Amino acid sequence: MQASMFNVRVPLAERDEVFLMNTFTDAQLLVTTDVADLLDRIETRTSPDAVRPLSGEERASIDLLWEHGFIVPDRAQERTALEAYFRDVRESTDQLRVTVLTTLQCNFACDYCIQGDHGDYNKNAARMSMETAARVADWTEARLDALSAKSFVLTFFGGEPLLNMPVVYYLAERLAAACQARGVRMIVNVITNGLLVTPEMVERLNACGLNGVKITLDGDRDAHNRSRPLRGGQGTFDRIIKNIREISHLTKVSIGGNFDMETAESYPALLDFLAEQEFADKLARVSFKPVIREKSVTTTKGMIPLTAVGAEGKPLNGACMTSAGTGVNRVCDSCNFVDEKMVFLRDETKKRGFATPDGVHMGPCEIHHSHSHTIGPEGSLFACPGFAGEAVQSVGHIDGRQEEYRSHALRQFQKLSAWEQCNDCAFIPVCAGGCTVASHNELGDMYAPNCHKTTFEAGVTAMAHDAVRALAEA
Ligand code: SF4
Ligand code: SF4
Questions:
Q1: How far is 306 from 322, CA to CA, in rounded Å?
Q2: Strand 210-216 to 283-290 pairing
């Protein structure tokens, strides 16, 4: 037997205890340092016989550690289990997820978004027609039938998805009826800049299974208005807050934000502001992530020279990232800044009592799920929203057309397994090698890990201290 490679420890010197987490089983234990030492001793032994001369108490501890996956038969078995886990994630038919980009148009001119207010971008940006929406619904119904999925998650994204409400309502209502007829649970999410959200819209989507609305605020009022103005240059903060106030009793509202070197410092003021609002206790989640920029557009002073907002002049605003920071394949000094800020902002968010991701349970993200699809305004299929800005990354089309470049892209995405380069990293089950979009844009290699291990480590440390606090309060 052997200590699991997925064990993570946080020593709690003041208590003479150690917080143990196993990222594969998700087990968390607070143990004495003696038990942690026992794990070290097992690590250096090679057979069950070798641990026999243990005391009864030690054997009981070993049983507990075994039961929760902190001790495993051997590394080979653990690797096999990990491969099976990723295969299950990839092939699971329990849930169908579809993200629809209703339009690539946007009413904002965010300074970090490559679509920005440049030229006549909006005039040419693609927008889903009702005919295409009908074909998206046909395609989705066929997928529901093929998979016999138990649940269906429909996410509206863009551009600004609410600039195309006819398509939003049509898809939500038709697919809600389709799910009801099939006994499938449907969940609807909307990711929006918040400017056009109304109570009427929320009530209509509630009837289709609306789970919540995610709205972006990029710092406090001044920072947000600088970063996310209307295309005419006017600020948008006040109107978004008014909209949140009007819908917060009708659905779950999550706040997201994209920080860079210049705006990160304004987030505590935003958190203070949110904490003072009457809707504070209704916010389902508050979380911030670094702006993703493409290397070629990161020459602006003060910007984090990381990442992508999309290629070919197409938007990537709001693309998710599982992680940020230092580690293998660190690409620039800004990674340190990003790691520190991610941890700092998570702490600041928690301090004000808002729910926020713990920074550990992040992945594997949807790009690793075969039955997660992103559909562009013209019906092209993508592996995840972060690649939807690059036509050549399309992995198929809802009309089933066969084109070599799409088949090629599909084969490329099916081979993703960046974690195989991560050796014995304890975070592989929750990281899977990091954000593929960031690897593609920062490193020019979607197969390379995009490593931000320090943010995971900080996340476990925070969990340890939360566990201790919870015990003290119990
Ligand atoms: S690859 Fe990156 S952008 Fe795409 S789903 Fe995963 S975390 Fe999100
Ligand atoms: S699994 Fe994630 S945290 Fe671990 S080495 Fe790979 S990229 Fe870094």
A1: 14
A2: unpaired
Closest Cα to atom 2, ligand 1: which residue?
A: 435
Task: Report the residue among 5, 23, 79, 328 best suited for mutation to probe ligand 2: largest number of ligand atoms under 8 A from its CB.
Answer: 328
Distance 72 CA to ligand 1 centre (A): 31
Q: E strands, 315-466, where?
A: 372-375, 380-382, 396-397
Q: pLDDT by residue for the chain (474 residues), tens digit each?
A: 899 999 999 999 888 999 999 999 999 999 999 988 888 888 766 555 455 577 888 888 989 999 999 999 999 999 999 999 999 999 999 999 999 999 988 877 666 564 444 556 666 788 999 999 999 999 999 999 999 999 999 999 988 999 999 999 999 999 999 999 999 999 999 999 999 999 999 999 999 999 999 999 988 999 888 878 877 778 899 999 999 999 999 999 999 988 887 788 899 999 999 999 999 999 999 998 887 555 443 333 333 333 333 333 333 333 343 333 333 333 333 445 677 888 889 999 999 999 998 888 877 898 999 999 999 999 999 999 989 988 999 999 999 999 999 999 999 999 999 999 999 999 999 999 998 988 898 888 999 998 889 889 999 999 999 888 888 888
Centre of ligand 2 from the C-alpha of residue 339, in Å: 14
Q: Write down the pTM of the prediction.
A: 0.86
Residue among 106, 104, 85 nearest 368 (CA):
85
